[in-house]
Amino acid sequence: MTQPPRDVVTSVLGFARTLRHAGVAASPERVAVMLDAVAHLDVLDPVAVYWAGRLTLCGGPDDLDRYDAAFPAWFGGEVPRARASAPAVRPRVVRSAPLETGAGTPDGEEPDDLATRASGAEALRHRDVGELTAAERAQLRRLFALLAPAAPMRPSRRRRPAPHGSVHVGRTVRGALRSGGEVTRLVHHRARPRPRRVVLLVDVSGSMTPYADALLRFAHAAVRARPTSTEVFTIGTRLTRVTRELRLRDADRALAASGQAIPDWSGGTRIGEVLKAFLDRWGQRGTARGAVVVVCSDGWERGGAELLGEQMARLRRLAHAVVWVNPHKGRPGYEPLAAGMVAALPSVDAFVSGHSMAAFEELVDVIEHVPTPAAPPPRVPAQGRPLQEDRDAC
Amino acid sequence: MDQLTDPAAVAAALEATGYLPDEGLATAAYLALALHRPLFLEGEAGVGKTALAHALAEVTGRPLYRLQCYEGLEASSALYDWDFGRQLLHLRAAEAAGTATDAAELEAGLYDRRFLLARPLLQALEDSPAVLLIDEVDRADDEFEAFLLEVLSDFAITIPELGTVRAQTPPLVLLTSNRTREVHDALKRRCLYHWLEHPDFAREVAILRRRLPEVTETLARQVASATARLRELDLLKPPGVAEAMDWASALHALGARELDPDTAARTLGAVLKYREDGERVRAAGPGVLFGAG
Q1: How far is B188 from chain A (nearest CA, A)?
Q2: What are the angstrom distances between the C-alpha of A262 and each of A266, A295, A325, B291?
Q3: What per-residue confidence (pLDDT) applies to A141?
Q4: Domain of residue B285, residue span
Q5: How far is it, in rounded angstroms, from Cα A32 to Cα B119?
Q6: Are B261 and B291 in contact (CB under 8 A)?
Q7: Which of A58, A63, B44, B207 is the most buried (most CB within 10 A)?
Q8: Which of B190, B152, B172 is nearest to A29 (CA)?
Q9: In total, how many domains does chain B have?
Q10: Domain for residue B2, yes or no?
């Protein structure tokens, strides 16, 4: 391999630095590969340099946009290939997905103050957890330190040695070869259970303000218990993935970090649209497939409820089970009357409340042993009201 | 192989086989060959990730080994396995013939290459140089990625009983992913990364004409433009090039020389694979497929 000239190396290293500032993890190893790639191409051709860098320094679709922005900033000129299909293709997976601010139709049927509080305007505010009183915080900490969310399990195709089960031919014969070809002992193996993915969708809109903090703490406890098989998104006027923030060990710091990440705290709700965004960008690709999906919301929907109903049906076809947590359900005499709630309930496997410690304990139980029509629950949760309906093609 | 000395040459060679790459993809394929790095391809389903491997195998004249990934894929079905039945038989035959005198020699004979069943990864290393396609790596689980690391960085497989098998010439490796799961960084770090886009209109027409020479120019243009419109409709599954080709051949099979609203409605199932998508397009009317005109 011919070494590229010195000024090329300097230039590429500087570009890598710019790229790292832009958020692309261009590791030294990747930069070395880029230099190697440039040496195989025409150094003076900006197009060749563009592709050499893009192919070697980027690691995912999120990186590509940042790369396309950083390339002209460093090397000057235009990005050689304008994205011909930029708006046409399905949007790439992005962490915070803005939706168009459509003027929500005023819904005359929804009475009282809650409907007025759920405003369609997006409040791009940052959440300050310092607003909680010390007593409340201490209480919440105690509450969530006691929670130990256990993951629901599913059988996997990986096997492990076991006293019973199907015969592991390889190990049995290897043993037999040691004893002169005589099979003296059968070695068995059986499927190893793996944790099923749990996806939490937490409504952080205005009408959920009193509960969102507690629900996020619950989510934090769940992420801490199973960091690789739990995903958390917040829904409001946007979809925001907060899994990464919630992986921080300390609950307060994790909540502060997710508060920073959530742009639509205490804003309006468009659950249907945001749920669609979730399913398009994450759910259908695999995040929701076979998972236990927990939607935490009061069901106050600004947009039409039909979209929410459609998307809930779609979610149920993808997910193993759908749990809806509505804090208002804990109130005496609660009836699911909100338009969104009515539209969503036919696609919900378990409908539970999430307003108190007891309710959260119950929720832990429901997530672990969620009742699905296919498999009746081993034990029915104390207050959870499993809705049993026919489930179409699952 | 020798004449693939720059991206343009790779592009020309691929075009000769009927695969029409854009500039980025040609550069990616060239660098994968020149740097001996695996190429990690992501993109929507049906944009030609798997087809690229077939085309590259044809261009380079190398055999193609394909490994389809799935959850629970084990080393014994991806790398190698011992042929236990034959091993036992060999042992019994040696006993019966009375040649089983030296135990150590007999045991060494049991772990001979002829009792080893090569699976795709080992086959690709032994039959060097080869093209290795590891398809839909996102469907496999984390454990399987660990098997891949040694293969992709050293192009070698270590078999405890036999030693290390190393490829004389590193195979050209293509990994594809539909992004249903985030693949581990340790794996991605060893690869070149390329995101495949849907082709633009002109390229799609060219692909249709090339792959389906029996389809008329008019039909190819109409199918390409209707497919491009469908991709803008925010469907559950926007059609890829594969669907456009299916659609064009379905239309051709019906004897259509042009796309008209009636045949389009009847053959929509070739291009849209969700009931909701089909209903949405039917509800929007033929204007969606044919533009304003």
Answers
A1: 7
A2: 10, 17, 20, 39
A3: 63
A4: 201-290
A5: 33
A6: no
A7: A58
A8: B190
A9: 3
A10: no
Q: Which among B28, B88, B189 is the nearest to A55, CB-wise? A: B28
Instruction: Name residue, tokens 């929804």.
Output: A110
**DSSP letter string, B44-56:** STTSSHHHHHHHH
Report the alpha-carbon distance of residue B165 to residue B188 in Å, rounded.
23
Tokens of B3: 């004449």
Residue-wise pLDDT for B221-255, tens only, equals: 999 999 999 988 878 888 999 999 999 999 999 98
A84 min Cα distance to partner chain B (Å): 7
B154 and B255 co-located in one domain: no
Domain definitions of chain A by residue range: 6-75, 112-150+196-386, 157-194
- CA A127 vs CA A45, A255, A258, B150, B205: distances in Å: 48, 9, 8, 46, 51
Residues of B in contact with A173 (CB under 8 A): 82, 84, 87-88
Q: Which helix (H) or strand (E) holds A244?
A: helix A243-246
> At a CB cut-off of 8 Å and minimum separation 6, what does B54 contact?
B19, B64
Angle at A158 between CA A195 and CA A278, to 5 degrees: 40
Q: Which fold has domain A112-150+196-386?
A: Rossmann fold (3.40.50)
Find residue B68's DSSP bridge partners. Answer: B135
Residue B263 is which amino acid?
Answer: T
Q: Is the ipTM of this complex over 0.85?
A: no
Closest by CA position to A266, among listed A210, A216, A205, A207: A205
Spatial neighbors of A38 by CB under 8 A, at least 6 apart, are A4, A8, A12, A48, A49, A52
Is B220 in the same domain as B87? no
- Per residue in B14-36, pLDDT tens? 999 989 998 999 999 999 999 99
Rounded CA separation A138/A391 (Å): 43
For residue range B170-225, list pLDDT tens digits in order: 999 999 988 777 787 888 888 999 999 899 999 999 999 998 999 999 999 999 99
pTM: 0.71
- Per-residue CA distances from A330 to A327, A333, A388 (Å): 6, 9, 21
pLDDT above 50 (res A364): yes
Q: Which of A179-193, B52-66, B97-111 has the lowest mean pLDDT?
A: B97-111
